[in-house]
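seq:
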Amino acid sequence: MKTNIILISILIVAFLFTGIDKSYTQNFSGKKLVDLTHEFSEESVFWPTAENFNIDTVFAGITEKGYYYSAYQFSLAEHGGTHFDAPVHFCEKGQSVEQIPVERLIGDAVMVDVSADALANRDYLISIEDFEKWEKVNGKIPEDAFVLVNTGYSRFYPDKEKYMGTSERGAEAVAKLHFPGLDPKAATWLAVVRKVNAFGLDTPSIDYGQSVYFETHRNLFKNGVIAFENLTNLDKLPAKGATVFAFPMKIKGGSGAPLRMVAMIP
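struct:
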């Protein structure tokens, strides 16, 4: 079993650095892989005050020696597109990106679907009751789980107006953000009562758009829980049984990083 997990991990890492076709799933050793990552481009969604994704061409074409060559350089803020949040993002003594053990980046996932409620209310707060309702059907959320919540909002990506509530940029745009997020009380419950490893969802932030004090971030990160934002294809996951591989760019001292995240379904 240990050998199989090592082999799968090596193959997944190779997968992270190669492209996949436009479909979001493919067969892999009898399993199904689901890509939970939006592609990075100049359309990628970033916080209104953060630097957008920019890419410049260094060279693309036939060289003077007769062979084809292409190279590009890009820049972006840590927190944009599908990305990873390290605890230090909102916890002064929390771990930074490179300090997260790789073992914590692979684990069993549960998927909680709140899309019916969230799509009806842009300011929906994912509650303890939502998780208790899931547990009545699927059993207790296990310790060290990756808890992923499908709000249904990834269908709007990258349309910023529909996805975030505004396409405006700058500090004044922050007050105009409207999208679902995790209730701070539920964040504490997941971290302290259920002792989960990670939390992620398909919106721009784990705090809802109208948050002012970012209590959800603070409640998770002071307890060491890691987070993922701007995920996609969560509706393709089962309520339980998927294994998640979440590999951020290993930025020393980083509070966040671009993320390639996939799920493997039995």
